[in-house]
Each structure stands twice: as structure tokens, then as C-alpha cells.
């Protein structure tokens, strides 16, 4: 990343942090799976509720600047509503899209991640010898590694930016960020659920020689 661009990213981050308006700040999320009544305009607030950001720096360079959206039941429902309205889908197409989105919940805990760095080779999540160790943890001491890390190369950039809008921090340089889908198991090796009835926090961690940082979602459990 060019020096001027690095400075712009740092400035955007400082302004966002000072304003305290980072996505998901002090927010609780609900993992319940009851039907929603969202409208297309609700999408932005739902997106922000399920999105977190991190910034790792080392020696004045940006080691990793990333935003992650947890594609939960709640998020997927809002996404299906917004997508259907954007592309003016028929009723049958809307129903099929929602079904596909909700069926994918059975594949595990999926996150959309947009990431950038001062050097493009530092964002190498999909490689077997990646410099990053990515894991999903709970406050109960459980940790799982990704089942799949896939770089999204065939999805049009305009569509990604429409449904996963960049935070104010990275908006000016969003085209320099690489999109990924990272999928984790929803069960532990012994078959028990990763997220149980007493889980209070789920954390996505990025760690490596360039630094480490975590994004956390506070869970609101049913009484």
C-alpha cells in the first residue's frame, strides 16, 4: 500500500475510533431462529449489528485491517429481504433465496471478512502456509479452527460493496481490500455444540508474527 494511502487509512481509523462508532460497539446479538419481519431498509442496521473490525499495526505499517460479518440466522434473513428488493425477485425466487440462506446455517458458523494490509502478501488467509492463525473461540474456553477459507474472486465488487458496505474507516480505499468467506464448525470434536445455552461471547481471533487482534460478539441468551 502506498505511504499516502497508509496515512489515509490511519486517519480514517483514528476518526472512527474517536467517534466511537465502529460497527458492533457494545452490541448484543441474538442467535434465536424465529422468523423475522424485516424490510429492505432494515438491512444496514442488521449488518452493523453483526459486523466487527480490527486494526493491527507494526512499525508504522498496517499488518491487518479487517472487518468481519457473522452470517447468522438474523443476518441472513435481513440479507435475503434486501437482496430480493434490490434485484426485484419474484415471490417464488424470494422464497427460494431465503431457504438457501437458512439451509446454509447447517454448514457451520460462516463469516464474511474483508481484509487489507500495507503489503498485499500479508493478506494470505487462503494459503496453506498463511502467516495468520485464525480461530473461533467462546468465553467457555472452546476453540475451533476454520473448515474452509475461501477467497471470493467471482462475486462482482459492486455487489460486495452494496451488501457488505465498508465502514467509515476504510470507505475511501475499500477497493484495496480482499473479500473472504471463512467457515467454522458449529460443533466441538466430541459432537457438543460450540455455542451452548450458557455461552456469553464468541470471538474471532487473528494471530501471527505481525501481531494479533480479536473481534467479539456478546450473546444475548434467552432467559
* Beta-strand share of residues: 25-35%
Strand runs, count: 10
The main pleated sheet reads as:
5 strands, mixed
Helix amount, in percent?
25-40%
Strand order of the largest sheet: 1-10-9-5-6
Rounded average pLDDT: 87
User: What Rg is obtained from the alpha carbons, in whole angstroms?
Assistant: 17 Å
Low-confidence spans: 1-22
CA(first)-CA(last) distance: 48 Å
Instruction: State the secondary-structure class.
Output: alpha+beta
Number of helices: 5
Q: Helix-strand pattern, N to C?
A: HEHEEHHEEEEHEEE
Query: What's the overall geometry?
Result: globular
Could you characterize the architecture of this molecule?
With 223 residues, the protein is α+β, with helices and mostly antiparallel strands. Helices cover 26% and strands 29% of the residues. The protein is built from five helices and ten strands. The strands form two sheets. Strands 1-10-9-5-6 form a five-stranded mixed sheet, with no helix packed on it. Strands 2-3-4-8-7 form a five-stranded antiparallel sheet. A hairpin with a 2-residue loop joins strand 9 (201-208) and strand 10 (211-219). Helix 3 (73-86) packs antiparallel against helix 4 (91-103). The chain is globular. Residues 1-22 have low confidence and may be disordered.
Short description:
This protein has 223 residues and is an alpha+beta fold. The protein is 26% helix and 29% strand.
